[in-house]
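Practice problem: predict the structure.
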Amino acid sequence: MQVETVTLQIPEPLYQRLVNTARATGQSIEQVMLHALQVGSPPTYEDVPAEFQTELAALDQLDNNTLLQIANNRKTTAEMERYNILLERNQSNSLTDTEQLELIKLRQEADLFMLRKAQASALLRWRGYNLTLS
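Answer:
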């Protein structure tokens, strides 16, 4: 991992809080500051399956309005009904081969859909946007 050096001027009260935290936790000031930056950074997408990471990483570049559209997006009733029908038929082992493939595809699409919604919502909150999702 490449490391970069940054010089940053911070207010004395904030610096003192970081020093106090470092002392109280037995860590270096650098460790405390790195942790604060990691916790306060935009949400990561690295814990999701690799097949979705590129799609989620692209959300970082989107403006708030586009992210809000993604966060508020919903599946249609027809899409949800088809998915539920296939799930029920899968439980009773009555899916055809074609339906099994369709269910796999719909499940992947649903996973990506929900991950995109969650990531968009998290990015908006991190950017200070007050979310009221529909």
